[in-house]
Amino acid sequence: MDKKQHYFVKLLGKRPGWPEDMTPEEEEIMGKHFDYLKDLVAKKRVVLAGPVVNPTFGLIILRVESEAEARHIMKSEPSVSKGLHNFEMQPMILSLLMDNP
Asked: Tens of pLDDT along 24-38?
């Protein structure tokens, strides 16, 4: 039986105007953010990720062994560790998921 846990994560920009007026440094950090999440998709730790608009925030669904692992993943995430985003996280039950080839 699969004992994985799922967490809904909301990434929140820390300053007004985010992300419309990103600086070159912030754009570089966001590139690292994308690569980090892409690697976690390959490792089957991220189920999905992407921006939500109006209001803007990042959405991530994690598939992990524990809350501690989820928090470690998010605290290590480049946009969080470099101070662009805060995150909110809560456990969820992933009941249905459409295949997305």
From this structure: 999 999 999 999 999
Range of the structural domain that residue 26 is part of: 5-92
At 101, which amino acid appears? P
Q: What is the pLDDT of residues 41-68, one digit of tens each?
A: 999 999 999 999 999 999 999 999 999 9
Cα–Cα nearest to 92, from 4, 3, 7: 7
Task: Give yes or no for residue 98 having a pLDDT over 90.
Answer: no
The phi and psi torsions of 49 (rounded to 5 degrees) equal -160, 145
Question: What CATH number did the domain enclosing 50 receive?
Answer: 3.30.70.1060
Torsions phi, psi for 7 (to 5 deg): -135, 135
Name 65's Cβ contacts closer than 8 Å, sequence gap at least 6.
Answer: 3, 4, 5
Q: Is residue 101 part of a domain?
A: no
Count of domains in the chain? Answer: 1
- Tokens 């846990």: give the residue: 5
